Amino acid sequence: MTIVTSTKTHKLKKILPIALLLLTAKCLQAQEPVEIDKLVFGTYYGACKGKCVHVYELDNAGLRRDDSAHYGSLNWAYYFTYTGKMTAEQHKAAMPLLKKVPLELCNKNRVTIGNPDKHDQGGIYLEIVSGPADVRMKLDIDDTPEQSAEVRAFKKQLLGLIEKMK
Description:
The chain is an alpha+beta fold. The chain has helices spanning 2-30, 88-94, 103-106, 149-165, and strands at residues 38-44, 53-59, 62-66, 84-85, 111-113, 123-130, 133-140.
């Protein structure tokens, strides 16, 4: 009986580290950014002069802008309206965003993270499309406690790209 138990314990000692390694790898993989099909993103400001809303649609085919969007239109029923195509260089610069969307943003829908435009800092509109899933949200431009480091880094990339395209 002791030999059988010892053999089982020995096998368990060999299998357990491998199982833990696989579980850890799976958890780490889940934290990786998600590649998506289409991203609609933009900024909006309630108290500004001139063009206060900048919205873009990005997918593998190109980068387009919607000049018809206005402050009040960026709600959960917003539908992107093509009004112009961006350059091939701008499309190329934006393409990495499709592979860098934090997984945690893909799991939220019709939420507001932070207090966008509460003190005239503006907000970010974000629509993530992957297959049949369509997730929409608004993000505070300011860094807020509920925004993870991954969300903050992604947001910084979005804002940098939008600033270059204005």
